[in-house]
């Protein structure tokens, strides 16, 4: 194990200190005991499950939280091998050792020794652990502990089929309407926070804009929400971003508009692959501000990716050129457009398909998406509903969704200039046409950095030129942004 992996395990294990005098033994039913004492045990079994999955890769391991016939105040955890049977007895001594390890340091030492002995490769492969629990009140918190344990091993993801989600309503209209909608959709298990009814102020330390820019939890969210699927609306509910709390601090893992776009594009493409008739032109529209990793991911799916100038109306117009066009800005504003002709084609096609067949179901899903999503301009509520449907369909946790790709580090700066109109860009804003020579100079800076990309564009509202830069490391992204900003000052002067 490398130092990064060791640090990750030490940090996450600090969240689940082992109770004094706790002594457990892994038996036929796994570990069982008083539910209030089991968080550290379940967390550590999550680690074991990840290691088991990596050892048997590419196999999925099951982790079940239950105490079967025991009283409700008890709970337990057990592991299922890929066959569906119990954990191999050869691994039970290791389970006992890590469950009873007296400190994070002792725990990591045991894991390190076991990984070396079993020749388990961490970081090179992909492990997957399916999580489940019974209905005991203690189960939800223990499930989160398991999820953190699984995810603390590099390359491993926990698949939680729990439907529960938390919604930050930004103290705006979206929270109020979600409360109403819950009454109609009984299968939508979601808790609404920041509805404005408790005196919260609209968009103040809450909402999609705050979460996306600051990358910290909004008010009303915190340590008790670690690992849970969360979503933030903006004040007027026309955009959304997802996130989950990654530790006991305020830090979050953000799933912005690029991630939502990628999820929707993957789902739609999978349905089209089932049909395999070549009748649909599927396109994805991004702006220059889209993270380069998302663009690479989408192109890797074989999708047609085009760019439009910043602004929803421009993305919308471009998306309308396709049979199915998907667009999102990183801020969470976007939608999916279906041409009327293509929807009519789908409806007619379904009439000739056998009900329940793969093709019939794929057509039905696409038609349903065209009805669910707000094609007029997009909104947070229909976006949330589609995300929840797709995740349920995929059987994905928010963590697995997040691992579709890893964002490249980026930085945005603005440079005050005497005349912003001196900068003229291409229609997609990816390159500068004026001042003459500045794009060549920018390209020269980009070539200095691994996975470097940068562009400039004039602000639409103030005399500044905006600079965006990304690279393989945050240090390089910062350096590239600073270099391009200096070029802007050199070519245009500074005010």
TrEMBL record:
Cofactor binding, note field: Binds 1 Mg(2+) ion per subunit.
Gene3D superfamilies associated with the record: Alpha-D-Glucose-1,6-Bisphosphate, subunit A, domain 3 (3.40.120.10), Alpha-D-phosphohexomutase, C-terminal domain (3.30.310.50)
Enzyme Commission code(s) on record: 5.4.2.3
Catalytic-site annotation from UniProt: 68
Source species, domain of life: Eukaryota
Pfam families: AMG1_III, PGM_PMM_IV
Start and end residues of each Phosphoacetylglucosamine mutase AMG1 domain: 256-396
Pathway: Nucleotide-sugar biosynthesis; UDP-N-acetyl-alpha-D-glucosamine biosynthesis; N-acetyl-alpha-D-glucosamine 1-phosphate from alpha-D-glucosamine 6-phosphate (route I): step 2/2
Catalysis: reaction(s): N-acetyl-alpha-D-glucosamine 1-phosphate = N-acetyl-D-glucosamine 6-phosphate
One of the protein's GO biological processes: carbohydrate metabolic process
The keyword Metal-binding appears for this protein: yes
GO molecular-function terms, A-Z: metal ion binding; phosphoacetylglucosamine mutase activity
Residues covered by the Alpha-D-phosphohexomutase C-terminal domain: 414-486
UniProt-listed InterPro entries: A-D-PHexomutase_a/b/a-I/II/III, A-D-PHexomutase_C, A-D-PHexomutase_C_sf, AMG1_III, PAGM
Function: Interconverts GlcNAc-6-P and GlcNAc-1-P.
Family: Belongs to the phosphohexose mutase family.
Protein's name in the database: Phosphoacetylglucosamine mutase
Species assigned in the record: Brassica campestris
Highest classification ranks of the organism: Eukaryota, Viridiplantae, Streptophyta, Embryophyta, Tracheophyta
